Amino acid sequence: MNPENYEKEQIQAIAKWKEEKPSVVKTAFGFVFYPISVSIQSVLPRSAIRGVLEGTSTAAKWLADEGDLRRKGEVSEIGELRTKDLRLSDQLANEVHNWAISLASAEGVGSGFLGIYGLAVDIPFIITLALRTIHKIGLCYGYQTKDEKGRNFVLTLLSVAGANTYNEKAEAIKILRAIDIMIAKQTIKTVYEKAVQRQLSKETVLIGLEKLSNQLGINITERKILQTIPVIGAAVGGSVNGWFLNDVGWAARRGYQERWLIENNRIPATGVSDVEGPSENQLISED
Which of 117, 120, 133, 142 could form a disulfide with 81 if both were Cys (CB 3.0 to 4.6 A apart)? Predict the structure, then answer.
């Protein structure tokens, strides 16, 4: 398959991914498992999840080393992957993705033996690994998280993966698009960049840690309910963690694929079957 056809296939895959409903499904046994859900949140409350997010984002970034990717991608600087070949970047991302799923599954089996008390270790680990996976997949496409826009992009990808409803996912994807537009247009006049930033803030576009903590608290609790049950906890723990990292990996891969395609002028910055951002005239007129 020639590069052009491959890229068209990925553009279609991105659009399809955006329309998929989140994989977390509310259990039909809500009343039965409600006490367990409360117990999980008492072991690791939402405030603790926020603390984990604040403390591990930087750590996850440093854990995402570049050396193996430069070697496998045959580049001297990781930024060269931003313009080299999408198929190559996808292959590198696939390796990172599969490794993360395997590690998460293995850790989930171990913590599952401890039942509900194992979650105090398991959940911080899985969030750190999720952030590390997003950072490293970004490197596969040549993107290093060096500024606030990059950090918000990473947190928004985690929000997409941790969405509990289609509306949550759609909102997070809209935020990704807004950040993409801001980055794609960073070479134009300063007044426009400031206007875009103001619009992002006004629409609460940049993901807040409090909101993300609440969202992940619900998402992870829903996934972890069965892990707390004696005997089956270890068996369930591995599959639950692998399931979460699979969602995280695909969110990162599709998000960074789209950014790569935008920056290489394969698709317009205004979107792929996506919500269009405000026009330049609309933004400047607000001055």
Answer: 142
Nearest to 193 by CA among 254, 154, 147: 147
Neighbours of 147 (CB within 10 A): 10
* Structure token digits, residue 149: 């826009």
What's the first-to-final CA gap in the chain, in angstroms?
A: 49
Q: What is the pLDDT of residues 226-248, one digit of tens each?
A: 666 655 555 665 677 888 899 99
Q: Pick 259 or 117 by higher pLDDT.
A: 259
Q: Which two tokens stand for residue 202?
A: 């006004």
Which pair of tokens denotes residue 128? 């750190």
Single out the residue of 29, 73, 56 nearest to residue 155, CA to CA: 56
Q: Is residue 238 within 8 Å of 106, Cβ to Cβ?
A: yes
What sign does the CA torsion over 168, 205, 240, 99 have?
positive
pLDDT of the residue at 61: 65
Enumerate residues 6+ apart whose C-beta is below 8 A from 148: none
